[in-house]
Amino acid sequence: MSLDFETRAFMDKLAAAASKPRHLMTPDEARAAFARIGTILSAGADVRSTVALEIPVDGGTLRARLFVPDDHPQALLVYFHGGGWVVGGVDEFSPLGREIAAGASVAVALVEYRKAPEHPFPGPVYDAWQAAQWLAAHRAALLGADLPLFVGGDSAGANLAIAVTLLARREQTVSFAGQLLVYPVTDCVFDRPSYVAPDNQLLTTRDTMIWYWTHYAPADAARQSSLASPLREPDLRGLPEAIVVTAEHDVLRDEGEAYARRLEQAGVPVHHLRAQGQMHGFLMMIGVLPGSRDGLGFVCERLRSLAARASR
Predict the structure, then answer these.
(1) Is 199 part of the annotated catalytic residue set?
(2) Is 215 designated active site?
(3) What CATH number did the domain enclosing 241 receive?
(4) Is the pLDDT assigned to residue 14 strictly greater than 90?
(5) Three-class SS state of 212
(6) pLDDT tens figures, 228-241
């Protein structure tokens, strides 16, 4: 299926306004450019409350926002935003957090981990892991009950969420009822068919992903770690039930779907949507791309169902 009309029109507008491609920018230039996308998004759904958090981690604190949809949320989703480990934050992804919270009736803790290249691998992994542990330990104080716990994210944030599930399985200190992986980064290979397809060089291109990886994990040994490239983890048994979203016109499509298959082969239940006609980043485009609404419908329905089952 070809890229949908709304996405093509959106990309044409971006191309007309762009000064240079992201992979030719400095990290600070890329952060400023990404922040401008946030200014065109709708505010997101209404929630009962939004709480600013400062989560202590080794060497500092992390900004986070807790979106509480109503008086009786069914679960807590710890969510790590996308941006190639280099750009993005709670401001740009708050509309998405609000939509998931309201649509799935779960509280969403949107966490802003420290970025590369100032904080390269494995720094963001351990930021995410410590944040997940802190939120697990404080959920009763924040939400009035030890609600079922989910972990998730999109793109690089989904990569961090996977790393958190691997660490949780190893450490046995936190238990997750499920994971939400939206077009996840799962490997450091740049020549899969979806990576090189001309139709997929859109909001996030092959060159952009190489640029992100160069800042996040420049050394090959770091890239080979399953905490950076979880598709290289030999054993995925015992990981949480997964909701996986991929996009048809996304350089990351093949590795995301390969990870979903690996989970299924390991006996992990997987609920997968390939969003037809959509590009990388579509889910966060609240009020801009109609595909976002459709993708959120799938995510929220599945998350609501998993949370209800975990609450029994």
Answers:
(1) no
(2) no
(3) 3.40.50.1820
(4) no
(5) helix
(6) 999 999 999 999 99
